[in-house]
């Protein structure tokens, strides 16, 4: 009987272009939805502005300047022993307006350099094609509410699949696609609370994803294409049958996205919900076949927390992380940002998803946002982050070893400090590597290894056997 993590396990870390690259207009890049989201914090939500406004700070414009530091940063990832680096291509570096006839060569060259640097160190890139940065130029079409945007996305996919053939074999079509139900602007440039609008946009993203899966396989049979789910998992507040049913309803609102992408069709419960609400999808001839043929090869997801829901829960998606259920779990501690810390929930989530879909899984985001302090000796002693990650890895190991769940890899979020998507802060740090930059974009941008850097290096060296 095999024990522990598989030999070819993809250990690594994950970033997003709009949260780490900066250089927001460099080398012909166009504006994206991320570039017009101002900074916020726990008390003040991020604002979506009409273009870039003077006097406001936009974190994506500077971020941690990974665009100009990628060689240094990837070398640090290699020092930790990364087997895999999950990153995203910034769509507007390739097609600045989204609907351009021809791609921007400077943007294509940049990612050539990034992937070549990864290969130099034996690091496998895992590329998210669209990670919360829809081109602003597509808003004139209505963004993803318009079926035409599928064609623009496919033009983008064809260019990058061909250009990076042999350099990239692992792809994710959309980051956290179910965020269309919680933060539609981030998910697809939809600035509307209308559920009909959001569900049409999601439908078009499902079709785009399915077409991208088929195209990736045609261009290179070695390509493996996955989906990415924002890991919302919930427990019922009690054994009251009403609480149980509310929990089922809550999970249906999230998991239907996985159902469509992993099974290739809309589940009956969602179609019945649409019927009750009068939501009509713009289905055209051949669409159902496209969804069925474009099922993903694997399911990846983020895991940070679990929710508690019950009969008093409003199933409206509100709150800092897109969901506010009204209940706290008394058995779990919380992070400085109020997220429930639940390592055992990771094992639970792996079993739930594998039981449901029977395809390989990958944890592509998991980490602790915390305030890190640089000590007088210039070091960062982040034992709290090590504790968090250790306990989660133990539970993932149990899912593999005890439950038999096929887990492909684990890319911790984010291996280097970057901008928080939810608040736009730098103060909320995740990294193994500290970046000297503050909430206003000021600093030396110097990289400093935290204690967790050396701990993760040891974890990878031992293939997850040494977690102390």
From TrEMBL:
One of its GO terms (molecular function) is beta-glucosidase activity. It comes from the Bacteria. Transmembrane segments: none annotated. One of its GO terms (biological process) is carbohydrate catabolic process. PROSITE patterns: GLYCOSYL_HYDROL_F1_2 (PS00653). Keywords: Glycosidase, Hydrolase. The keyword Hydrolase applies. Pfam families: Glyco_hydro_1. One of its GO terms (cellular component) is cytosol. Belongs to the glycosyl hydrolase 1 family. This is 6-phospho-beta-glucosidase. It comes from Salipaludibacillus neizhouensis.
């Amino acid at each position: 009987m095999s024990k522990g993590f598989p030999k070819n396990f993809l250990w690594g870390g994950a970033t997003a272009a709009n949260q780490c690259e900066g250089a927001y207009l460099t080398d012909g890049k166009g504006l994206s939805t991320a570039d017009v989201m101002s900074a916020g914090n726990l008390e003040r939500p991020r604002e979506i502005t009409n273009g870039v406004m003077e006097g406001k700070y936009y974190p994506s414009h500077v971020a941690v300047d990974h665009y100009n530091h990628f060689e240094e940063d990837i070398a640090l990832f290699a020092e930790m022993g990364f087997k895999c680096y999950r990153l995203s291509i910034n769509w507007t570096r390739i097609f600045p307006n989204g609907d351009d006839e021809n791609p921007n060569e400077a943007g294509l060259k940049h990612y050539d350099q990034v992937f070549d640097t990864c290969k130099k160190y034996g690091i496998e890139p895992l590329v998210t094609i669209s990670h919360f940065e829809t081109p602003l130029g597509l808003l004139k079409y209505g963004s993803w509410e318009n079926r035409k945007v599928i064609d623009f996305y496919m033009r983008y996919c064809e260019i990058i699949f061909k250009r990076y053939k042999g350099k990239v074999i692992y792809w994710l079509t959309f980051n956290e696609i179910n965020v269309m139900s919680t933060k539609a602007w981030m998910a697809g440039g939809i600035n509307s609370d209308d559920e009909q609008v959001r569900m049409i946009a999601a439908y078009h993203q499902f079709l785009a994803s399915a077409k991208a899966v088929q195209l990736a396989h045609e261009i290179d049979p070695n390509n493996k294409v996955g989906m990415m789910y924002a890991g919302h998992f919930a427990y019922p507040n009690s054994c009251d049958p009403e609480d149980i049913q509310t929990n089922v309803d809550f999970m249906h609102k999230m998991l239907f996205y996985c159902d469509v992408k992993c099974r290739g069709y809309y589940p009956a419960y969602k179609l019945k919900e649409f019927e009750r609400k009068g939501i009509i999808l713009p289905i055209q001839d051949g669409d159902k076949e496209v969804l069925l043929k474009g099922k993903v090869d694997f399911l990846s997801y983020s895991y940070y927390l679990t929710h508690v829901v019950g009969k008093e829960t409003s199933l409206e998606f509100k709150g800092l992380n897109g969901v506010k259920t009204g209940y706290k779990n008394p058995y779990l501690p919380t992070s400085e940002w109020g997220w429930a810390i639940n390592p055992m929930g990771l094992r639970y989530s792996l079993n739930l998803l594998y039981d449901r879909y029977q395809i390989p899984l990958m944890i592509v985001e998991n980490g602790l946002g915390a305030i890190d302090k640089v000590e007088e000796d210039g070091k960062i002693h982040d034992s709290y982050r090590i504790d968090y990650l250790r306990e989660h890895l133990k539970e993932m190991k149990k899912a593999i070893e005890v439950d038999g769940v096929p887990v492909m890899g684990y890319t911790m979020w984010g291996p280097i400090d970057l901008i928080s998507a939810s608040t736009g802060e730098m103060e909320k740090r995740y990294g193994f590597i500290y970046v000297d930059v503050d909430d206003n974009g000021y600093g030396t941008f110097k990289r400093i290894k935290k204690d967790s850097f050396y701990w993760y290096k040891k974890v990878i060296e031992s293939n997850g056997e040494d977690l102390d």
